[in-house]
Amino acid sequence: MAISTSGIYLKAKGAGSAAYETLVDIKAFPDMGAAPQTIETTTLSDTAQKFIMGVKTTVPMEFTANYDPADYDKLIALTGEQDFALYFGEDGANGIFEWKGELTVWVVGAGANAAVDMKISIVPTGEITKKAE
Q1: Which of 42, 43, 60, 113 has its CA 20 to 30 A from that of 103?
Q2: Which range of residues forms the domain containing residue 90?
Q3: Which tens digits make up the pLDDT trace of 44-88?
Q4: Is residue 66 in some structural domain?
């Protein structure tokens, strides 16, 4: 079964809150994970390189949203580590990915006849996991 990108929400959980709330409406989201690093274990007697898996790679996660001054100010106010989630469906019926991280936001450049966007970068401070159903 395939799903559409319609109905995907970036949410955050405030300090002391048990529930996630939508941060802003997003236009694009990044990969929810990445390939692990590899550690080479090739010896001089091997005829091909050998590897074992290393730690999972985490990189800043960039989301795109329409620039709105109120949303921008709301995001700027988020300081320190937060709980984040990406909901596939408003209730997460098609999956919920959770992680902790720190957020930064900025307005991106644009040309004539274009919407003004902002980028939301979240640096993960832990592993991204799919919430058990």
Answers
A1: 113
A2: 8-130
A3: 999 999 999 999 888 899 999 999 999 999 999 998 899 999 999
A4: yes
